[in-house]
Amino acid sequence: ENTLIGLPPPFRLNKILMNTTSSPEARQTGKAPNHSINWIKDDGPTVEVINAVTGKCNTGSVSRLSKQMFFMKFYELLRKKIPTKTGITLETAPDVYLDAKDQVQSYKDAKTYMIAAFKKAGLGVWMKKPEEQDQFIYSTAAC
After folding, report:
1. Domain coordinates in residue numbering, the chain
2. Burial letters for 45-56: b for 16+ Cβ neighbours within 10 Å, e otherwise?
3. CA-CA distance, 35 to 24, in Å (whole number)?
4. Which of 30-34, 37-41, 76-80, 130-134 has the lowest mean pLDDT?
5. What's the DSSP call for residue 22?
């Protein structure tokens, strides 16, 4: 916490309040469920059941919590001319998710600060994912 200094706005350290236990049970990956569930408060009975292996909804559709869906929602904001903190406009928005992230300097700075803070606090090295994971193209076909 004390190692995370200098985050650019609008980024900030969020502290979640969770119940703690006096005798934490060791993580047992063999007991991990093969699905997850999410819902939106006040949105009626719209529960999404997601296959934990594929990341897709049990209906085969794209999850509302996926990067692909968030990227599509970002484009909706741009089309409606709603200002974002990214500095990206509909005219300058790249079609590739990774390229959009790379255009936002404050995001890249915040990520650099966070990785350095983890290292300084002795929390280990940030695990990098394959770049290909974020090299998908904006498409309205997913909706």
Report:
1. 66-142
2. eeebebeeeeee
3. 23
4. 30-34
5. S
